[in-house]
Amino acid sequence: MKILLHFLFFLFVTFSVFSQEKFTISGYVTDGRSGEAMIGAKVFVPSISQGALTNTYGFYSLTIPTGNYSIEFRATGLNTKAVTIDLTKDIVFDMELGTDLQEIQEVEVSAKRGENINSTKIGQIELQIDQIKTLPAFMGEVDVIKTIQLLPGVSSVSEGGQGFYVRGGGPDQNLVLLDEGVVYNAAHLFGFFSVFNVDAVKSVNLIKGGMPANYGGRMSSVLEVNMNEGNNKKFKFKGGIGAISSRLTIEGPLKKDRGSFVVSGRRTYIDVLMKAFIPDTSPFSGSGYYFYDLNLKLNYKLTDKDRIYLSGYYGKDMFTFGNKEDDFKVDMPWGNGIAALRWNHLFTNKLFMNVTATFSDYMFSFGSEQDQFRFALKSGIRDYGAKVDFSYFPNTRHKIKWGVDYIYHSFTPTSVSAEVDSVVFDTGEAQRLFGHETAAYVLDDFDVNEKLRINFGLRYSTYAHTGPFTRYIKGDLSTPDTSIQYSNGDLIKFYHGLEPRISFRYLLPDKSSIKGGYSYNYQYVHLTSLSAVSLPTDIWYPSTDKVKPQSGYQASLGYFRNFKDDKYETSVEVYYKGMNNLIEFQEGALPGDNVNDNTDNILVFGKGWSYGVELFIKRTYGKLTGWIGYTWSKTERKFPDLNEGKIYPAKYDRRHDLSVVAGYKLNDRWTFGASFIFATGNTLTLPSSWYVQEQSLLFNYGDRNSTRMAPYHRLDLSATWYDKAYKTKTDKITGEEIEVKKRFRSNWSFSVYNVYNRANPFFLYVDNDGNFLSGDFKITVKQVTLFPIIPSVTWNFEF
Amino acid sequence: MKNLFFLTFLLLTAVSCTKEVEIDIPGYKDLLVIDGSIETGQPPIVLLSSTNDIYSETNLQAYLDGFISGATVTVSDGTTTILLEELCTDNLPAGTEEIAAAIFGIPAAELVNLHLCAYTTFNTAMFGQVGKTYDLTVTYEGKTYTSTTQIVQPTALVETYWKPEGSLTDYGYSWAKLADNGSQYDAYRWEVKYLGAPVFKKTFNPFFDDDFFNGLTFEFAYENPMSFDDPNLPDEFKAFYKKQDTVVIKLSKMDRDAFSFMEKKYVQMYSAGNPFATPTNIPTNIKGGALGAWAGYSPWYDTLICVE
User: Fold this and answer.
1) Does the residue B198 lie in any domain?
2) Which residues pair with A718 in a beta bridge?
3) How many domains does chain B have?
4) Is 90 exceeded by the pLDDT of residue A502?
5) Is B59 on the interface with A (CB under 8 A)?
């Protein structure tokens, strides 16, 4: 409460100090070619060195003293436009960029030159989708998350994996949002591809530290993915044909300049290719794998002050395996469904509101049949959410946000059925858990003086675990199993907590600044994983009477400096993160059936911490762009019931992580990309000894995660060839030959993954072979490598 | 779930390549391994051995050197405590050679030339009895290890029968009908042998409990583990019993702790090397820092003649 009072007092003082005769210029910045909102476009007044950035919906609001100003509008990849405005009253001014046909020749990675120095954002990185498309692509599939993994402080869970760890936090500690809908599993094909179809994605924003108060529910990071809105001026088609999948996107106006739609679909054809190699007579006929996903977005401008957006995603993976000889069959589908309906309303030119209703569903299912035995397992999570966010721009020195957030969670950790012929086994009731998560927040991003800017926020969150629910209490030899029944709506456990967030920027001379941040977060949902790698079988589990919410804090401090007219952005950041109530399966746990049991009966709880330093050098524009990121870090865990209570390294503890990413635009026809990564090997637990029991060779595992795999390093290259943008045409009137822009454009994208064919470890295992008595018994450690050098080619088109 | 992990493992290994590597695996501890059991009408038998470093020698001598003698082993049923004798393979009582061979997994002819010791007793007062609880105490090199197990009531099979499998006429699985007691926890071990054979053999996954079928009556099939030892049997007939085979079925019950060890043991055996399985240290029911198990079994026997 004391903090809150200080905060309100500070707001009052700073409002008073800066109260002068001021007016507001506000409006939307859009891409003139498609009518789409420009996220993060900069509206800047050079004469007073003040400006604003557009929000996710392209809206900006700038309140400055009365006067005559030249105002610049700048956005990535488009020419800057300037207008002169005599500001003697509040003005609504919408700007379309990119209508002058002549796009800038250089690839500019960030429109917000100098913003990395000026903003209070620490640990935040924005990526433009056009930049991601120029980087090497695994099997031709351009991938948002694989690009994220090339950033400092972010590491992948495994070779090719989609799961990512941010500054020592687990993969469940990342809030992945697609148009504000929560994505619980961002992976296809056991993690090798992401659910984000790049043709449907407009921008990607990663917050790995200093999380603002408007975000919550996760401890480590926010990955915000915004979908394209669709062209509201004309119909367009684009797509690509690749080695393993193809995609097609259609967009166009619902009503010109008022509304648009975009539909984007993608499907792999591994199953089709496999059919060619598995004849119908084969016992494995019918086995295969495919995934597909579909993105849909509609937006409509109801009035000058009201806009609605409807976003949807549906994706599914299907793995089937059959062996006719053994009469064995497996079906394994899993996937996400996400929907978000948003309504923007402008109360005044300073007050912006967004109301969002979301639906998110993740489902995993496994069914098998062998002879007379049938078994099925289902797991999933379903959320219904609603939130209201307000943005208030009283003047250029303050940007205030507040809002409320509510999510109704329905978890099904496991639901099992099994039968033999007509006998149905008792698999107990399906475990279902229900929870209500709410939050309210307020934050202000404000200038204390010309050098010091602070972003201070408070978030208060609650979680209620409610019935119906059955708590199973397992007995032992002397006591029988018992249970407690909770009825529909019964409050089983209530958690709540205050989450202060603060970050600051202090400007230094020579285009440099110091930034710091502190955030405290609660997380009420948890991902439990049995395996060393992320799988769709990982189970989302909520906080219950047994499972406390995860909580943690992160403190970070950084020095930022730009060189050569902001061409080079550099930073050094150090961080420390503490985490409580982390969960793991207990030693030897065998989840899966959970018959008349609760999953949390086999969970154990502990804490963790991580710290590190991140170096980042980025070249933002010019023919050559890219970055070098290096991270030194240490991540540890301590669970009283694991590893004999001793501290152990997290499985993704990495001492060194280096990434070098480069894009080079040779000319209008050729663009080249390269990425190189080097990372200390992941840790894992291997048996340190063997013994014999009833003539069976058994293993005893050593300290948890005490073995470290060989370092991981890999070089990928890409080249993209574009057809000519213009064609020659004879003018019917003058007879002269003129150049006109081609309607149909295409490019060929060539990629080579793992250029020097490094045999990187995916995992290690201890193998034994032979027999003691025959003298050929041998125990060895084997390394499994997944991907050798893989060339690929994709043809992309649009018209 | 085990099938699921296995399938995922298969899928990935199908597209991967594997090579042998040398890597540091820290954390080796020299631990005592206790492999003890007692069953109805039988004496307690305890084998002691030690763990071996994962990179240690793996020849026959290393295996033999792992067995431990010189420990003090006692078993108590709550009223009587017996000190078990060390019975060594080079000094076996007549008629016990085949049993010893089965215990150590070494042919009887070779066993008599080796000095491998088990701890047991000929005192019939300590032969297993249904309903009793047995405490084991092992003292070795100044450390004491203890454990407790129960011999629970056995469960009889309602019916056993044989039927040909699919289009086969002379080969098929053995089938059984089990009526599980719904008022208690039940864990089972399934073993078989041909009539007249000296020792029972376990099936691929011989341990199961009633989590799924508590209180139900149902039928199930089991494969023939002996068929895999017959080099003359064509592969397509492996796992089946042949018409006219006579088989002795041994269905043993055990307590929850003993089952927990056995269940996890088989999970480890079948998931070793699979990255999707959690590293599973098998939970022992022995206190004091040793590995292994002390398990009480109460068997029920049935003889099945494989005819329709």
Assistant:
1) yes
2) A673, A751
3) 2
4) yes
5) yes
Are β-strands A398-420 and A373-395 bridged in parallel, bridged antiparallel, or unpaired? antiparallel
pLDDT level of residue A108 (50, 70, 90 thresholds) = very low
- Choose the weakest-confidence range: A109-113, A181-185, A486-490, A771-775: A109-113
Give domain status of residue B199, yes or no: yes
Closest partner residue to B18 among A366, A425, A782, by Cβ? A782
Identify which of A331, A317, A251 has the alpha carbon closest to the alpha carbon of residue A287. Answer: A331
Which residue among B103, B126, B151 closes a domain? B151
Q: What domain range is B206 assigned to?
A: 159-255+300-305
CB contact under 8 A, B33 and A692: yes
Bridge-based pairing state of the strands A95-97 and A22-31:
parallel
Residue in the structure block whose two tokens are 């086969």:
B168
SS3 (DSSP) at A755: coil
* Helices vs. strands in chain A: H and E counts, helices first: 5, 55
Separation CA B269–CA B260 (nearest Å): 14
**Domain limit, last residue, from B151, B186, B221:** B151
Is B217 found in the same domain as B115?
no
Q: Best interface-test mutation with B: which of A478, A651, A688, A768 has the largest number of B CBs within 10 A?
A: A688
Rg (CA), chain A: 28
Which of B294, B262, B98 has its CA nearest to residue B193?
B98
Give me the residue from A530, A592, A694 closest to B35, CB to CB.
A694
For A317, residues 6+ apart whose C-beta sits below 8 A from its C-beta are: A188, A189, A289, A290, A291, A333, A334, A335, A536
What domains can you pick out in chain A, each with its CATH number? 2-105 (2.60.40.1120), 223-717+792-798 (2.40.170.20)
Please enumerate in sequence order all residues whose Cβ is within 8 A of that of B36, keeping only pairs 6 or more positions apart, or say none. B44, B45, B46, B47, B136, B147, B292, B293, B294, B295
Q: How far apart are the first and last CA of chain A?
A: 58
Locate the chain B residue with the closest alpha carbon to A370. B3
Confidence of residue A428 (pLDDT cuts 50, 70, 90): low
Domain assignment present for residue B260? The answer is no
Among the partner residues B17, B27, B214, nearest to A688 by beta-carbon distance: B27
Mutate to test the interface with A, among B54, B132, B151, B217 (most CBs of A within 10 A): B54
A301-351 residue pLDDT tens: 898 889 999 999 999 888 887 766 666 777 888 889 999 999 999 888 889
| Chain position carrying tokens 């198990």 | B293
Residues 6+ apart with CB under 8 A from A565: A113
Residues B225 and B134 reside in one and the same domain: no
- Report which of A61, A52, A57 is spatially closest to residue A90, judged by C-alpha positions: A61
Task: Based on the fold, state whether residues B134 and B166 are members of the same structural domain.
Answer: no
Tokens of A620: 């933002």
DSSP state of B211: T
Alpha-carbon span A199 to B224, nearest angstrom: 56
d(CA A156, CA A173): 14
Statement to judge: residues B163 and B233 lie in one domain? yes
In the beta sheet, which residues pair with residue B18? A784
C-alpha–C-alpha distance, residues A584 and B90, integer Å? 49
The contacts of residue B144 (CB under 8 Å, 6+ apart) are: B137, B138, B288
Indicate whether B6 belongs to any domain.
Answer: no
Q: Which of A627, A619, A721, A623 is nearest to A674 (CA)?
A: A627
Of residues A117, A157, A181, A492, the one with CA closest to residue A315: A181
ipTM, interface predicted TM-score of the complex: 0.89
Token pair 């909520």 is found at A542
Whether residue B127 sits in one domain with residue B86? yes
B170 and B68 part of one domain: no
Write down the pLDDT at residue A116.
75
B43 and B136 share a domain?
yes
The CATH code of the domain that includes B45 is: 2.60.40
Residues B136 and B228 in one domain: no
Rounded CA-CA distance B202/B186 in Å is 19
